[in-house]
Structures are given as C-alpha cells and as structure tokens.
Amino acid sequence: MTVSVNYPEEFKGFAITDPKDWASPKLTSIQPKIFGPNDVDIEIEACGICASELFTLKNEWSHDELACLSSTYGPKCQIVGHEVVGKVVKIGSECKTDVKLGQRVGLGAQASCCAKEDCSRCNSGNEQYCPQSVGTYASRYPDGYVSQGGYASHVRAHEQLVFPIPDGIESHLVAPLQCGGLTVYSPIKRGIQDILDAGKEQPKVGIIGLGGLGHMAVMISKALGAEVTTFSRSNAKKDDAFKMGTDKFIATGEDKDWESKNWDQFHLILNCASGTSAVDLDKLLKTLKVNRSFINVGLPHVDEKFEISPFTFFKNGSTIGSSCLGSRAEAIELFELAAKHNIKPWVETIKIGEEGVHEGLTRLDQGDVKYRFTLVGFNEYFGTGK
Amino acid sequence: MTVSVNYPEEFKGFAITDPKDWASPKLTSIQPKIFGPNDVDIEIEACGICASELFTLKNEWSHDELACLSSTYGPKCQIVGHEVVGKVVKIGSECKTDVKLGQRVGLGAQASCCAKEDCSRCNSGNEQYCPQSVGTYASRYPDGYVSQGGYASHVRAHEQLVFPIPDGIESHLVAPLQCGGLTVYSPIKRGIQDILDAGKEQPKVGIIGLGGLGHMAVMISKALGAEVTTFSRSNAKKDDAFKMGTDKFIATGEDKDWESKNWDQFHLILNCASGTSAVDLDKLLKTLKVNRSFINVGLPHVDEKFEISPFTFFKNGSTIGSSCLGSRAEAIELFELAAKHNIKPWVETIKIGEEGVHEGLTRLDQGDVKYRFTLVGFNEYFGTGK
User: Taking every annotated instance into account, which residue ranges of this chain make up the domain Alcohol dehydrogenase-like C-terminal (chains A, B) (predicted)?
Assistant: First the structure.
C-alpha cells in the first residue's frame, strides 16, 4: 500500500482520539505545527516503538483528557512515536546547527527547548530539563499546538533536538537509541563518569529489568567500560543477558541471599523496569557503595509511588532519583559510541501501516518483544524518500 | 552534690529501664564493656543533648524492646548521650592513633567500627558506614554488650572514633559538633565539594529546619563558602537565622510562591527537620539544580516514610537520600573549620544531675531550646577531673 502526502501542508500518520482505541491508531492527515525559524522537518524512514507510547495512548501518565483534544490549532487526535530516523527535508531560516538538507538524522522524545543562552538548563548541556521543553508527542507548544509523533510520514522539531547520525549504523538499529538508548546513556555516563575519570577501578553498574531499555543499558554500560550485573526476576532471560555482554546475572526471585552476596557492589543501579512495585528498594539499595545512586528511567503509572524509609539510606548514604532523556551532546556521543563499539540493539522490524502499528503496540503491551520493535518501510508506505 | 565512681571497674550515669520513664533517667552504676586493645576511656567533662536521645529513650526507632534488656553482659539499663567532650584516662595497648593520656577529645554517635584494612568502608574514609559500626549508646557490640552513652562519668570507645579537639573552642560549644555538627558537616562537604573544586560559582545550599542540627548547618555551610538559604515554616526564627549567617530566609508557610521564586537554585538541600511529613518534596525538589541532591539527616519515627512519585524527579534529575554521621577525617576537619571560623553553636548549658537531665530532655521534647543544650559540670558532680 502507498498513500500520498501533501507535504509540507500536511503530514500523514496513525492517530487515536480516544484512549480506549490505544491499540488501533488509524491513518490520518494532520496539520503540522507552524514552521518556526529554528525548526527542521524530517521525512521519516523508521521509528522505534517505545513503552512510552502505551502509557500515552492509554493516557496513564495523566488524570486529564488527552492534551490534543484541547489544542489551540492543529489535530484533535494523537500520533505517537519518538524514536525517529529520517532525512532532513526542510531547514528553518535561523538554524545554527550544521544540519543539512538530505542528511540522515534522529529525533528522540524531546522536540523543542528554548535554546536560549540565558537558560541555565539549555546553556549547561541539560536542555532535556529546560522548563520550556516540549515532548515529541502529546506535549503542548507555547502556541497551543499539541505535538505529534513519528508513526508518520514527517515530523517537525527544533534543530537542537535533531541529531546527526554517523554512517555505519542501520536506521532500524539506531532508531531505538533516539529515546530508549539516550535515556539510559545519560544517567549511566553521569553516574560513573567520576569513577572513569579517577581511573582507579572499573565502575560497577547494576541494570534492573532486561526489556527494551535494560538490554540497551547492558550494552552501553559495557561499551563505557563498566562491569555489568543484570537483575531480573527469573532466569528466563539469563542467556540473552550474557549474549548482550552482561558480566553477572542475578535472578532476584530465584537466587538466595542475592542482596547479602552483593552488598557494597555498585557505583550505580539503573532501574529500567517501568513499575515501582516490583522493586524492593530496601534490598537493592544495600548493594550500592557509599554515596552512590539508584536511578529510575522507566516512568510508571501516574499514581504509582516509591515508598522509602529514611532508614534505608542510612547504611550507605545512597540516594534515589530519576533521570529524564539526555542532551544533544550526549546523543551525539552515544551514536559515536554505538558506531565504534558496534552496539546493536536487538530489534524486530515491523512494516508501518495500521496493521503493523497495531501488532507492535499489542505485542509490546503483552511483553512479546525481544527486545525492541522498529517500524520500517515508511518511504514505501507514504510514497516518500524520492 | 558529688558522687563517687570506682573507675575503671564501674562508670556512673543516668539510665532508664523502661521507655515510659524516658524523661527521668536515674543515677546508676554500670559495668563498662570489656576493655579492648584499641579502646580509649574518656573521663567526661561535657555532653550535648541530641534529639536522638528522645527517640532512643522513647524507643521510637525500633519495634523491639530496649536492646539493653537482652545484653549478654553488663547493664540491663540504658544511658544515652553521644556528644561527649572529655579527657583521655586510659589507652588500649594496640592503639595506633596519636591519642594521648590527658588529651581533650570528643566522641560522637559512633563508638566503634572494624577499622580493618580490608573493610571497603573503613579504608575509604567511610567508617560511619562500616557494617560493624556500633553506636555510642543502645547498640550491640559483637560480644553482646549494649553500648552506654555519655550522660555519665566515663565512656569507652574505639580509638578511631575518639577525635582530638583543637584548643580555642570551649568544651560546651564543641560538644554539639560531635554528633549534630558532624552529621551536617559530612553531607554539606560531600554535597558541594565538586562546586568548590570547580571554583566557577559559589555553592548554594538550602537548610530546612532551624533547630539543633539546622542552626549548625547554617554556620558550617557559611564557613565552607556557600550562599545559605534557610527554610522554616514561619518567620519566627528569621532574625536568629540572619544572626547565624544565613543569606536568605524562606518561610514556607507564609511566603507566597516560594517554590517558583526559587526554581533551579540549590546545589544541595539538607533536611534537618526530624519528621518527613512536614516536608513537601514535590515543591522542594523543584528548587534543586540539575542532578543535585536533597539529603536527610534527621531520622524520624521508624514507621514514617517518604512517599515520592518518580515523576517528581523528572524535572531536574534530582535525587533524594540520607546521610549518616561523618568520618574521623571529617570530624577533625570540622573542628579545625570551627576553630578557624569561630563557629559557635547557640548553646544553653545545664548542670548534670537527675534534675538537669530531666530538664534538658523535657524541654528538648517541647522544642523549648535555642538551639542546643550541653550538660556540664561533670567533674564536680562525679568527683572526677583531678
């Protein structure tokens, strides 16, 4: 099937208008956001499927109705997708990055930031924490448009968040690095940089949950030089974990005394599981070295909370927190690291289309994925790429 | 009144056997712990009153009975006090620190650690997190003795935790630094050291709660070169805070929009309040800069918990944790800093005795203290110091 797109006046993509239809987005034409002087249009070639999509489409990260339903202009429907790889087809008049027409680029979960010199977040390599950050989908721009994602023919984003992709990594493999990969890279890098700089010991990283995020976290930690321990509930994914490069594997539901055996081990624990309830913080925090951190990257349902006794931290002065995405500089570092170390996420490709989107979303919802889906065939489907 | 002590066979102090009598410890003779080759005996001159005493005497940090009731040997009663200043009167045969007979020393909330070269905590300046750490009171030694504190004629402790005190600070003022001062110094130092080292900006520290711990935290943060903001519920202590050196003062119950006015301000927030319920983490964490920490030093009731949504951290990648006491090296640094910067905790002295102990504990329980009590007159009372 090939559909035709009247770009740049319209983009085409797969959208829902009601969370009950989360598994079945329908082909829809949408009006893009008004093109700004720092915007870039990407003609999409491939797009990863991230668990964020399920939370957004089911509207589980909010107590309000879908944001698009109250957009000031543009579509009253929602297209998701924020692991975009594609080709630059339009560049705003004031773009300062070296983005070029025809260049292969990526776009992750953030589509805009203020990028002002006096923004303490943007001017310090922390634009993911810019107070004017706009997510790639389901997020409101200052002008009232609600952002639309990458299960689509095209996507429009601020140049700061449009990342050059080096040669040597195939698009369907580099797609999951745009959101998932960057989301784990940033806290791993920030969490062990001091140990790497000191050069006295190999950093030890624990990764909880071998799913879409976790399996990339294992590979990225290894590439950064860490000793990696994978935590999983059972031994079911043990063989996979070792193939991905983990040094050690702990099945918390099957290994006896794993917490005492691993006392004082880790410089960083990264929680890649999306729920908080399965994580026994009292046990896990004991495995951290003094003053090190347990960082979450998966976001659970809006009502799920961590419950922690202040006593838990007193045994090692550890801390717990969350990390959100990564910066442009970190994205570029990550892609270079991936190219250099031949990091290849385990990706199953699915052809874009209503059927393919449905299959990807429902199988991800059932956990039937090893370990990431990338939607492909965009050019054929949308009649683009010419 | 003068009582006589048959030191070294017995120490005398003020003890309870039942938490219902928390406010009225009685004069008691106790058998000290068996003297080890690395132990030091201190003839006590002064001892601060710490809020830990209330929690311990009321048994609010535990669901079990008082630990002393099941000690293997020694007293079946509990003496508290862990801000000890006194004179060294006995030194173990294998002591390696330069502790000297007659020297003025301090002892904080920790009385022992393994001090072994192969202990990852003891060999890295983190002996406060040694798995064999023994608290100065109500804590079980490996031999089954339950430790007894400093509202007493003498106290016995491992040399590693017996700190030399420089001249130029009076004993009743340096006493509160042994536990309270060190407990805030360690996380402040560790929390802003990277900013001090970088030398590009003045570290900004927020201190929550202007009580015993908080007022020392303000003075210590200033001495370390930070800009200090004190958070309090009302403006009642505002004048005091400025006298102590705070640069800014926020009354969270009275100032409007304090959290948006202070967005992205702090490199460190230190929570010196002992409860968790009064602290609005969702608002406070917003005032942290990217990837900085909110650290607790006050320990609440054993059943109090922090409840945090993972979403809260996503705006700035902040973390939350707790810090426990400080190391010997940090204690020595702190006393030098105090001597150099003339740090003087606001101390009201109370004469030791059943009456004085009762007054100190009940007034502290009622919050009737500005801002710390030190029990004094030990030599006169116990007939020591000769």
Answer: 212-338
